[in-house]
Amino acid sequence: MCKPSTSHLPPLPTHPTMTSPSQKPLKVGIIGFGPFAQFLVKTMIKQGHSIKATSRSDYTQLCTHLGISFFRDMKAFLESNNEVILLCTSILSLSQVINSLPFNCLTQPTLFVDVLSVKEYPRDLMLQVLPQDSDVLCTHPMFGPESGKDGWNDLTFMYEKVRITNEATCSSFLQIFATEGCKMMEMTCEEHDKLSARSQFLTHTIGRVLSEMEVEPTPIDTKGFQKLVQVKESTSRDSFDLFSGLFIHNRFAKQQLMNIELAVETIKQQLVKRMNEQVDPSI
């Protein structure tokens, strides 16, 4: 039974030899067990961490195959003594999920970590909703099941220690990625969102535009066009929910979209001007 509400304020066997000397096996609970969470979990299992999962969909069979525990009941999940709770929901569903959690069922101060592609939004939401004794770590693994299928070496992992009192648990979680050779990039959530709007959101926008134009390979493709087709195909594999989340919950994305529109209009005007300059008045 959950402990009384206060003010606002079967596990996988561990394999210590798989972790680094300074890293202890963690008890990690995962909320949202979609493809990205499944991708991360395989490495966590390899390193010897104990994993529990819960999700809106029933992943009991998959979790049994992986050798981890799956909870259909959120209260039981929160009572299961997790040291870390990893939020792997979609950007658009995060608010509904986190506001519905019965935090009074937590059995100990817990490190909450998100892996969303935007950062200021989950940071602000977690600081507003989570219990005061919960630590907050905002992260963004800058890779996924496709780019990380052959390992995480030299792939970027961004993080900000927003509110950390238990340095040991936080360090052990970050070691999951450092041990795999990730480039560990510590920066503020604000700086991340500024840079992400000019990189990830821009890439997804261009890819969506190419998809709307039904761009396809041709027999005479240049190398540059082949790369454009690759951008279209890679971004199309991601859901429109992800793309819209990158826009709705990154305040810098709005300006970036305006910049794209302005750039297209500027180029159009330059082309029209050059075309008019080339018209032979004698014809």
TrEMBL record:
Any GO BP: tyrosine biosynthetic process
Pfam families reported for this sequence: PDH_N (PF02153), TYRAAT1_C (PF26213)
Protein's UniProt keywords contain Oxidoreductase: yes
Prephenate/arogenate dehydrogenase domain residues: 26-283
Alphabetic keyword roster: Oxidoreductase
Top-level lineage group: Eukaryota
Residue ranges of the region described as Disordered: 1-22
PANTHER family the record matches: AROGENATE DEHYDROGENASE 1, CHLOROPLASTIC-LIKE, AROGENATE DEHYDROGENASE-RELATED
Entry protein name: Prephenate/arogenate dehydrogenase domain-containing protein
